[in-house]
Amino acid sequence: MRQFRPQEEVDFVIIGSGAAGGIMAKQLSMAGFSVVVLEQGGWGKYGHEWDYNKDELLQRNISDEDRLMSNPARQRNTFRRTDREEARPGNHSYGSVVGGGTVTYGGSSWRHLPWEFNEASHVGTMAGTGLADWPISYEELEPYYTQAEWEMGISGQRVDSPFVAPMSKEYPVPPVPMKSSGALFYRAAAKLGLSVVPGPLAIITEGYMGRSGCVNCGMCSGYGCHVKARSSSAVTVIPLAIETGNCEVRVRSYVREILTDNNGRVTGVTYFNAEKQEVFQNAKSVVLSANAGESARLLLMSASNRFPDGLANSNGVVGRYLMLGGGAGASALFEHPLNDYKGVVSGTGIVDYVPSDPDRGFYGGGRMTSRGYATPISYGLGGLSPDAPRWGAGYKQALRDESRHRMAISCFTTQLPLETNRVDLDPTVKDEWGLPAMRITSTSHPDDIKNMEFFRQKSIEVLEAAGAKSVWAGPVRDSTGGAHNRGTCRLGDDPRTSVVDKYHRAHDVPNLFIVDGSNLVTGGRNHPTMTIQALAFRAAEHLVRSARAGEV
Amino acid sequence: MDTQGKSRRSFLIDSVAGLGGVWVAANYPGILEAEDHVLRAAELGQADKFVFFTPEQALEVEEMAAQIIPTDQTPGAREAHVVAFIDRALVTFDSERQADYTQGLEDLAAQARQSFPSAGKFSDLTFDQQIQVLTEIERTPFFNLVRTHTITGFFASPVHGGNHDKIGWQLLGYDDSLNHEAPFGYYDALPQPRG
Fold it and tell me: Nearest-CA residue of chain B relative to A183?
């Protein structure tokens, strides 16, 4: 791998190597630009290449060195529901490894639907919310969705449905084999008149671009993929970036500040290396791809005389319109074994409730996905039906009776962007590097909660229609964090109401580009990654053009 | 037994060889220290090989574990060597819980004596008396700690000392193969209406 000295002024520093950062690294380095990627995590070698032995315990007790997700005890964060509360220690966590969250995610790769780019025009702007149209249309983004699907390697089946985004090209590899939970989805859907679609997944099902297909090992979401079937940035775009000889991925580099000169231009970034020594890396431009929470926090930490409220934040929008993610679901037992612990975490979706429907009396929509139980330890500790004993002969009998017979539905639902929901800097709590901890303030809109309850009820209905022997569903809960965070540096044409322009350039800083989930103006149905990847390919194409024209 | 021990040892070493440097550096002494114990704890009679527990403590913990996942027509926590797993956990990745066990076991004996004054300790009680005592303490942090450790040890990979002979996985019908092929279950094996 090419190595750069910190004193060398590289063309681009990219902060983060996840869904967007990996793509930016590949596109910029292949175009001939010199690139240093700063990743706070490590290479994660046994996240996806280790001597695999189905060791759930080891994964649950992983060392800080080899973690795949951030550790809330080190990357500290705090949470509060409203401004009136004192924030308390939070549990927000995100991908922290080369490849970011794409190393461990379930791989759902749903596109946003065309009307999700201008929902405000459809359903109205909704007083008190930040529901707004995007500055780009589905038609503008469609080619980049296709590019992302083919360059990353997405499995799936193109379908003609009003509830699924239209595609100009098939998926590069066929969908994953249907599981029993999927078969039961089809059974319920036939009874209820609903539509089931094989889930588009960043998990290849056959050989593709030098990688081999999924072996259905079953330790999937939350784990690295030992056969590299999951199409993470770490096994797709980043190796190609490194291969160009123009790109260095510098791990264990925890960025503390983006620096600017008297002209308001970015000059580079300061980060802590593995020994917690500060290093300044010179750069002509910076691409910030650290995820919605961390990108916003870093901009706020980069305040200076010229940018007293944080970099790129002259309008105070940075950190706002945070969407953490909404969800609901239910579980059930069936007469015959499903063995749903085998295979990918989720293979099918019911899509009829993706659009919002005014007849329901609230704004909201979502996608229902089928799944089973996960892995033995987590199942034994908390997977049984609520009436099962917690220990003793009854507990043991329930383990025997229920484990292979369980199915669950997990719904991914809308969350309205609200100005009051945001990331900022905690005034007192510091992270392990002595930097202000991320403070999350979030309360979902009442419609979001009604929508979650709607999906909870629909989940019960679907499981009953599928012929379940028993069904249970816990109460819906408002989110407090998590890897689906979006929306803190929204795209927009108007510099007063958005942070970056439609090509991801910060309105306030000509050589700062923000490309990640923070850009999402609306959150879709809480399946953001495919859209982040499409945005990254589009942003990179434009950035290459601008940089070559000397316009950066 | 000797051959079995050797194959277990090489399995453990093989799996350790696949770990990252720092985890091993931080935990390797504990793993090595516990290794012989892990191997020998294959037989519960050798409680004197425990690293953290005294033989007396190991007996009490095992009696608790054997109530949490009892032996019926199929083996339970006892046969799965859960106590060996817990002992190892307490000298490696869960070493900060040692004091909880020391204190918790004293409290358990006190609870046993309070409910059944003739008993000296928990393991003196009959099966049904043990259930009564554990029911009395089932909301305590100590009980929940032992429950968590028992279930974790019962279902963790056997390289960690519990789940002996994959007893835990067999109870669930969990096939730990690294590769699976469709059909996976009953319903996806049926003819599908999918278009």
Answer: B188
Q: What is the mean pLDDT of chain A?
A: 95
Q: What's the CA gap between B131 and A20, in Å, rounded?
A: 55
Give yes or no for a contact between A340 and B185, defined as CB atoms under 8 angstroms apart.
Answer: yes
pLDDT digits (tens, 9 = 90+) for A266-284: 999 999 999 999 999 999 9
Chain B neighbors of A395, CB-CB under 8 A: 68-69
pTM of this structure: 0.92
Q: How far is residue A529's CA from residue A111's CA, in Å, rounded to a whole number?
A: 9
Residues 6+ away with beta carbon under 8 Å from A259 = A266, A267, A268, A269, A270, A280, A302, A304
Q: Using 50, 70 and 90 to split pLDDT, how confident is the model at A50?
A: low
What percent of chain A lies above the pLDDT cut of 90?
91
Choose among A50, A51, A381: nearest Cβ to B151: A381
> CA of A183, closest CA in chain B: separation in Å?
5
- Could you tell me if A136 and A166 lie in one domain? no
Name the residue with higher pLDDT: A277 or B93. A277
Domain segments of chain B as ranges: 2-174
- Chain B residues within an 8 Å CB radius of A465: none
The pLDDT of residue B86: 97
Domain that holds residue A454: 160-226+326-414+445-478
- CA B188 to chain A, closest CA, distance in angstroms equals 4
pLDDT reported for residue B5: 34
The CA distance from B166 to the nearest CA of chain A, in Å, is: 11
Under an 8 A CB cutoff, do A390 and B182 touch? no
> What is the least distance, in Å, from the CA of B46 to any CA of chain A?
25
> Other CB atoms closer than 10 Å to residue B110's CB: what's the count?
12
> Does ipTM top 0.90?
yes
**Per-residue pLDDT at A63:** 79
Do residues A356 and A210 both lie within one domain? yes
- Which residue of B69, B169, B193 is in closest CB contact with A186? B193
Q: In terms of CA atoms, which chain B residue is nearest residue A44? A: B20
Residue A399 CA to residue A401 CA, distance in Å, equals 6
Tally C-beta pairs within 8 A across A and B: 172
Residue of B nearest to A220 (CA): B178
Enumerate residues 6+ apart whose C-beta is below 8 A from A431: A74, A75, A76, A437, A438
Residues of A in contact with B147 (CB under 8 A): 390-391
Given an 8 Å threshold on Cβ–Cβ distance, is A218 in contact with B180? yes
Å between B3 CA and nearest CA of chain A: 22
**Residue-wise pLDDT tens digits, A294-322:** 999 999 999 999 999 999 999 999 999 99
pLDDT the model gives residue A123: 85
Predicted confidence (pLDDT) per residue in B97-116, tens digit: 999 999 999 999 999 999 99
Residue of A391, A401, A407, A463 to mutate, testing the B interface (most B Cβ within 10 Å of its Cβ): A391
Inter-chain contact B147–A65, Cβ cutoff 8 Å?
no
Asked if A162 and A144 touch (Cβ cutoff 8 Å), the reply is no
Q: How far, in Å, are A138, A157, A331, A405, A462 from residue A184 at the CA level? A: 33, 19, 13, 12, 9
Domains: count for chain A: 2
The residue with greater pLDDT, A481 or A275, is A275
Residues whose CB falls within 8 Å of the CB of residue B29, separated by 6 or more in sequence, listed in order:
none
| CATH assignment at residue A358 | 3.30.410
Does A117 lie in the same domain as A169? no
